[in-house]
Automatic annotation (TrEMBL):
GO biological process: cell division
Superkingdom field: Bacteria
Keywords: Cell cycle, Cell division, Signal
Protein name: Cell division protein FtsQ
Signal peptide: 1-25
Length: 236
């Protein structure tokens, strides 16, 4: 009988000891304080600074225990920031709070009624950043909800082409819903027209630009009109 009890106690001890040690270690980890916040922007463009992120997730004036962290609430707070698209937060057992930030990416800077703002990669309005200025085209003119989707599609089209991205510095939306471009080097204005036949317009502009660049006559013309089907109409 005694031998049986000893065997039972031994088995129970073998089962419960690892669990007890795990619970003890877990409780000890929960009482450890956060000693550092590491921020990973996953980008060299800093639309929100490390210091701003740190102030959002922790109070620098007091110690924070790992067990008191509410990760979901921290991520929700970060995701609601105007410069952040998505965040991921996790803590290691040695007290390092890791914050991964996916920032919103501006496609263009808009100027309307004396105010500037961005359009981001999802086609939404985005405020300017206090810490970083994006190198993107300026959009002016008839900016309203009616033209918003077409303008977004045009900007995405420009962004997907290296030549257009490099050379177009300004997009002007006309009242007739057509578009004009200012170029980085050439002094002429490009009349793009509407969003029809954009691949053909792009090919025509590239061919014209290459020819004028080769003959060193890029600045001879004031207007390069691409709105007519498969034509380049130039005005001096």
């Amino acid at each position: 009988m005694k031998n049986t009890l000893r065997k039972i106690l031994k088995i129970v001890t073998i089962i419960l000891l690892p669990v007890s040690l795990q619970i003890f270690a877990s409780n000890r980890n929960q009482t450890r304080t956060i000693k550092e916040v590491k921020v990973d922007h996953q980008s060299s463009d800093m639309y929100i600074t490390d210091e701003t992120v740190r102030r959002m997730v922790l109070n620098p004036q007091s110690k924070t225990e790992i067990g008191s962290l509410k990760i979901n609430e921290i991520e929700k707070l970060l995701d609601n920031h105007a410069m952040i698209e998505k965040s991921e937060v996790f803590c290691t057992i040695d007290g390092i709070l890791n914050v991964k930030i996916k920032q919103r990416q501006p496609l263009a800077r808009f100027y309307e009624e004396g105010k500037f703002f961005y359009m981001d990669s999802q086609g939404k309005k985005m405020p300017l950043s206090d810490s970083f200025s994006a190198r993107v085209p300026l959009v002016t003119g008839n900016i309203d909800e009616k033209h918003w989707e077409n303008t977004y599609n045009l900007i995405k089209f420009i962004q997907n082409d290296e030549f257009l991205t490099k050379n177009i510095t300004k997009i002007n939306i006309k009242r007739n819903s057509e578009y004009e471009f200012d170029m980085r080097i050439a002094s002429f204005v490009v009349i793009w027209g509407d969003l029809e036949e954009m691949e053909q317009k792009k090919a025509n502009l590239k061919a014209f630009y290459k020819q004028m660049e080769k003959s060193n006559t890029l600045n001879v013309y004031k207007i390069v009109n691409l709105k007519y089907s498969n034509q380049v109409v130039c005005t001096k």
